[in-house]
Design brief:
Blueprint: H1 2-42, H2 45-55, H3 57-78, H4 83-104, H5 106-118, H6 120-136, H7 145-198, H8 202-207, H9 212-254, H10 259-269, H11 276-291, H12 293-312, H13 314-323, H14 327-367
Helix pairs in contact: 1-14, 3-4, 3-7, 6-7, 6-11, 9-10, 9-12, 9-13, 9-14, 10-11, 11-12
Length: 375
């Protein structure tokens, strides 16, 4: 009985040690990433990298397009369709979807943006009245509510005046940015077209640049990374579309101004784990309350319901199955990448950390470095 008890205690100690090692491993990875990014920032490497990335954006777009449609091209090749015919057919589908999207959504989105801009003064006035009403109901025995109310109202007035003054330049800059982005995207599509034509054996060609003894491990690792990223991207696209569609319908039924605009913003921001729903839903809730307390509460309830369902189903499928990351790891990654790269860092932190985990896990499985399960 005593030996059995000792065995159970020993197993408990071993199990606890493995958990501690996992925590230490996560902390070491996070600390390494933070130190690396900090060094890059201090050495002003970020500026050079940012400028280089801006120049190479069309190339990245082309690579992503070719990477996304290559499985479809291979499927067509399996049906005895020549690669150039399959690529042309895939691009016709892409261009057709873009044309349908532009014709169906962009005019509505444009009109809703104009309507929202025209209503900015009314929205700010409603927010001021709503804020003053809430602060007026707070017990002012221990807090100087009048001073707080004056500061909040002054800030809102200042923001409203600055927005009204800078709105024309914002519209012009926004239009020029959109035109520039369209041009960049078109160049990226052209690059992607030629990459798709030539990438039937591009992986094998690149693999030949490495020594033969490491070609098999590199091929296996690239296959695992490709599978992880593709699962994440496919899930993220589905997640974005579902949240956009459901949010737009809910906002339209409630009567929120510019439902397509806020639905699109909710869908795009929802790709960011945990923080995304709050970033995407906040503007819709603010505008909803500016229209009326009932609309604001209804918008808030709709967002909570949508995010609860999405968080328990779609987000679980995306993160748990594609990246298999611990929630704590994801949150820490969001904080670090968000600190250095802002919203773009938060957007790409999860897939990048997922890729890093795939690499570390593959090396550990191959050479048993950490000597515990990283799954």
């Amino acid at each position: 009985m005593k030996n059995k008890l000792n065995s159970e205690e020993l197993n408990g100690v071993i199990s606890l040690s493995k958990k501690i090692l996992k925590v230490v491993y996560i902390l070491l990875v996070v600390a390494s990433i933070y130190i690396f990014l900090r060094i890059m920032k201090e050495l002003h490497i970020f500026y050079f990298v940012t400028r280089l990335l801006k120049i190479l954006i069309p190339l990245f777009i082309g690579i992503i397009v070719a990477w996304l449609i290559n499985p479809f091209i291979k499927w067509l090749e399996g049906k005895k369709v020549r690669r150039i015919i399959g690529t042309l057919f895939a691009y016709l589908l892409i261009i057709g979807c873009i044309v349908l999207l532009v014709n169906a959504i962009i005019p509505l989105l444009y009109n809703q943006i104009l309507e929202l801009v025209d209503n900015f003064p009314n929205i700010f006035a409603s927010v001021k009245n709503w804020t003053a009403d809430i602060l007026g109901r707070v017990d002012s025995k221990y807090i100087n509510i009048d001073t707080i109310e004056k500061n909040v109202i002054d800030r809102l007035d200042e923001y409203s005046r600055s927005l009204s003054t800078s709105l024309p330049s914002l519209i012009v800059n926004g239009a020029s940015s959109i035109i520039s982005s369209i041009g960049t995207f078109i160049v990226g599509l052209v690059i992607g077209f030629f990459l798709t034509l030539s990438c039937s054996n591009l992986g094998g060609t690149l693999l030949e640049l490495f020594p033969k003894k490491v070609q098999t491990p590199i091929s296996e690792l690239c296959g695992k990374i490709n599978l992880s990223l593709r699962n994440y991207v496919n899930g993220a696209l589905i997640d974005t579309f579902v949240v956009f569609l459901v949010s737009t319908i809910a906002f339209a039924i409630i009567g929120l101004k510019a439902p397509i605009l806020f639905g699109l913003f909710c869908g795009l921001m929802n790709v960011i784990p945990y923080a995304g729903p709050y970033i995407g839903g906040a503007p819709a809730v603010i505008v909803g309350f500016s229209q009326g307390t009932g609309i604001g509460i209804a918008v808030l309830i709709a967002i909570v319901i949508i995010q609860t369902i999405e968080g328990n189903f779609l987000q679980t499928l995306i993160i748990s199955r594609a990246t298999k990351l611990n929630p704590v790891t994801i949150i820490i990654g969001l904080l670090i990448f968000g600190h250095f790269f802002g919203i773009w860092g938060m957007l790409f932190s999860t897939p990048l950390i997922g890729v890093l985990k795939v690499i570390v896990k593959y090396i550990d499985d191959k050479y048993n470095i950490f000597r515990f399960d990283l799954s």
